[in-house]
Amino acid sequence: MKRVELMNVSKTYDKKTxxxxxxxxxxxxxxFFVLVGPSGCGKSTMxxxxxxxxxxxxxxxxxxxxxxxxxPPSKRDISMVFQNYALYPHLTVxxxxxxxxxxxxxxxxxxxxxxxxVASMLGLSEYLNRKPRxxxxxxxxxxxxxxxxxxxxxxxxxxxxxxxxxxKLRAHMRSEIRQIQRRLGITMIYVTHDQVEAMTMGDRIxxxxxxxxxxxxxxxxxxxxxxxxxxxxxxxxxxxxIADGEVNRQKSEIRIGxxxxxxxxxxxxxxxxxxxxxxxxxxxxxxxxxxxxSPDNRQVVEAINVEILGNETIFSFKIGSYEWMAKxxxxxxxxxxxxxxxxxxxxxxxxxxxxxNELLKTPTDIENNILDKExxx
Amino acid sequence: xxxxxxxxxxxxxxxxxxLNARTALLYLFPSVLxxxxxxxxxxxxxxxxxFFLTDQHGSAALFVGLENYAYILESQAFRNSIxxxxxxxxxxxxxxxxxxxxxxxxxxxxxxxxxxxRTIYSSTMGISVAASSVVWxxxxxxxxxxxxxxLSLVNLPEVQWLLDPDxxxxxxxxxxxxxxxxxxxxxLLGGLQNIDGYLYESAKIDGxxxxxxxxxxxxxxxxxxxxxxxxxxxINAFQSFGQxxxxxxxxxxxxxxxxxxSIYREAFVNYQFGTASAQAVxxxxxILIVTIFQFKFGERKVHYQ
Lengths: 377, 305
Prior knowledge:
The structure holds two protein chains of two kinds.
Chain A: E1 4-12, E2 18-27, E3 32-36, H1 43-51, E4 58-63, E5 66-67, E6 78-81, H2 93-103, H3 108-121, H4 137-150, E7 155-159, H5 167-184, E8 187-192, H6 195-201, E9 204-209, E10 212-217, H7 219-224, H8 229-234, E11 241-248, E12 253-256, E13 260-263, E14 276-281, E15 287-288, E16 298-302, E17 305-309, E18 312-319, E19 322-329, E20 339-343, E21 350-353, E22 359-361
Parallel strand pairs in A: 3-8, 3-9, 6-7, 7-8
Antiparallel strand pairs in A: 1-2, 1-4, 4-5, 9-10, 11-12, 11-14, 12-13, 14-21, 15-20, 16-20, 17-18, 18-19, 21-22
Helix pairs in contact in A: 2-3, 2-4, 3-4
Chain B: H1 2-17, H2 19-49, E1 52-54, E2 60-63, H3 67-74, H4 76-107, H5 114-122, H6 129-139, H7 146-153, H8 165-193, H9 197-206, H10 210-238, H11 242-247, H12 259-268, H13 273-298
Antiparallel strand pairs in B: 1-2
Helix pairs in contact in B: 2-13, 3-13, 4-8, 4-10, 8-10, 10-13, 12-13
């Protein structure tokens, strides 16, 4: 268990444009830290900088309490799992697993016991004498994992380790990696482009975009309080709906397109200073309009696509020029073209400044969705 | 009626079943034709001729059975050719492959301007045997050659590179190694670049040094390429002709009279097509046996992906 600290870290290849800039983060010992972002946001580069495979061109990296900018990869107390696993095709599973121990001249007997231990933990015991090409994708992934944990390095780096697996296996390995990390108490830095992995695995996650930190925090806090529209639309599936809104000062309401008007309550009158804002709402916060819904809040939309996922129904509709999605519990027998009355509550909205992308307001009525253990009998 | 329709159906199905085979034959036809004209016909003609005494036109005149073979195996000159050829193979193949591997390893480093060296190292591939042999002829020249000039600069005695029977085979070997380096280098460099860079990164994180990586990753991963290069180099060495013809003409005192050159002299200087054919068949068998052995013993150590 070791702490990893990045201070003002930046990376540039041509000394002009920074592909990663101004990274400040402290990854605590034993933490599962996820770097997430779209392709090309610099997350893999950042991981490779921590590993020592890429040079750090600005700022400083501390591993443990030591400055590590110029340490060679082998001196950084790390292990790493690569996206394509980087297994040695000419070596057996066992030789692959103990490769690092062999390099470190660990006695043969200890190599053997440690290998067997890890292999049984990951269910690889029967495959120790096979070559990687004789294994399935999931088994290869496990070998890569075994190779990383057999070194007993206090820090483990993973670069999109699950992206080559099919969906079912991926879900399984997600929880397996998480359990192993918890059991061994290693500090994990995990890179992914998949927000589901980030949400489900991370103690904390860092969202990167264009080489800059967008937000760092617990997954659920980021989900509830996204600091900007990018984070709001990146985290969550389906993503948060976003549309341009206009503040009408006289009537104190937000207008989206021509037909949508949402009243601003008096306590949020500070919003009236803005003119242009971005209005966001999570798909599950769009509710069906009932008889009690005031006519102001009620709108009828036309479903342009309907997906029923077992016990959830997602339908899309147009609002102005934007396509929005709503997610409702249950199996709604909706058809494309159906007219659906919905309501948008001011309390459910997430508002951002149009120019600065700054967060103005987060949903306030999500408390109904948060359940505590107290409900157990 | 029923029977005939059944046989018609069978016929039809055979015609249709063979569709793929017929298509394949059509595609193969050009190369099969070339092979027959330039490889198979000469080969069988050679085997046929090796059992005959021939007239001066090279056509079979008198069947002598295995006498040609008995004659060449007893002849002192041919035994000398075999010895020279074996030595030549031993001089050129290991040294050539090791040199090419070394050059490929250093040219595989990611450095600025490495493309220049890659071009230089592979350039001997673009030079014909004849042209380069002429250059080497000048380099080896006893009085104006560069090698003897260099030797005299450091006060060493001159060497009669191509005229001294003890040196001639070595000199020809040196020029052959140089000549074959380009091809071997290029193939080995290609093999090196095919190795996944992540393997080295992973080894680096484990703390493996350069030599450890070379021994446990590079060489095993390169083994199919190395195996290919060794096979090709062996066959090439057995069949060397051009550089011998230009540099030494088999001399001095038969020291560089390799089998292929001896075949050439037997056939086109002495007009003994029968014994020349017997020598050619002998060489063919030698190469075949060596290659079979190599596949049998070498391939076990080769890792294919």
